[in-house]
């Protein structure tokens, strides 16, 4: 059974059609990438799936088989935006546990769990460092770790490596695949980079921008490249 299903979703802002008749299905454990040029509606899709924006009337959204409003997804989805959003006054561990802490989980327990996860994210020995002492790639790994620690049904990653240089970005893609293969979480990864979408995705959804309208093309199924 799909974890999330969006059918004929549209979103209009005044005269602007941000998305138009978009459908997508995500099954548990998949890593699906969404690729498309700037302005094709990726952020709008992200906002709907993150529960921040309702699609227009006539759109159908289902979560784990039940029809629902986008707002109900707010508590079910963990998301990671393009900028790392680390708090500069908190060290690596305390940034990583932020989401759990806000949720009201025991801080000591969360810290212990984060400490155990550090090696996987290439952050061993950096637990007491502050964001300004880390490279861009390391900061994104802290943000990624925070998103993984927040045990939600669906992870939404919005261009998480977009601001990184090419080499760091390639390394981060491998990190993500390794971590994802270990944890088997359901991930939707949004990017404007076709190579990134093809490399990471079990399936790639291609969004295209046309003057005034946007359409989701048929999903492409690809073999995952062997690492
Ligand atoms: P992408 O993330 O792929 O660049 P967006 O979803 O941000 O695309 O935007 C798709 C279209 O919808 C663009 O033309 C954008 O200007 C418009 N748009 C997005 N959000 C809003 C908004 N809140 N108000 C008005 N127009 C918007
Ligand atoms: P890069 O694109 O190389 O990753 P950024 O544009 O993210 O770099 O960061 C520019 C500068 O801002 C860096 O010197 C970094 O130390 C600082 N910086 C960025 N994000 C944070 C943060 N969350 N907390 C503290 N400092 C930050």
Automatic annotation (TrEMBL):
Keyword ATP-binding: yes
ABC transporter domain: residues covered: 4-227
Keywords tagged on the record: ATP-binding, Nucleotide-binding, Transport
Keyword ATP-binding: yes
A GO molecular-function annotation: ATP binding
Family (UniProt): Belongs to the ABC transporter superfamily.
Protein name listed in UniProt: ABC transporter ATP-binding protein
Portion of the parent chain present: 39 to 265 of 296
């Amino acid at each position: 059974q799909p974890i999330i299903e969006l059918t004929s979703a549209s979103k209009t802002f005044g005269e602007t059609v941000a998305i138009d008749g978009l459908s997508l299905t995500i099954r548990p454990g998949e890593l699906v990438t969404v690729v498309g040029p700037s302005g094709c509606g990726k952020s709008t899709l992200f906002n709907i799936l993150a529960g921040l924006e309702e699609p227009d009337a006539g759109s159908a959204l289902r979560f784990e088989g039940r029809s629902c409003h986008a707002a109900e997804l707010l508590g079910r989805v963990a998301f990671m935006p393009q900028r790392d959003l680390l708090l500069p006054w908190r060290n690596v561990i305390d940034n990583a546990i932020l989401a759990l802490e806000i949720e009201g989980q025991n801080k000591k327990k969360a810290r212990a769990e984060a400490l155990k996860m550090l090696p996987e994210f290439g952050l061993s020995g950096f637990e007491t460092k502050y964001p300004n002492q880390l490279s861009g790639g390391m900061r994104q790994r802290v943000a990624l770790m925070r998103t993984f620690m927040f045990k939600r049904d669906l992870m939404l990653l919005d261009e998480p490596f977009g601001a990184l240089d090419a080499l760091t970005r390639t390394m981060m893609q491998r990190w993500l695949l390794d971590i994802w293969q270990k944890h088997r979480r359901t991930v939707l990864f949004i990017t404007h980079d076709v190579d990134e979408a093809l490399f990471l995705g079990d399936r790639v959804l291609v969004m295209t921008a046309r003057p005034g309208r946007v359409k989701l093309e048929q999903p492409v199924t690809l073999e995952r490249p062997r690492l």
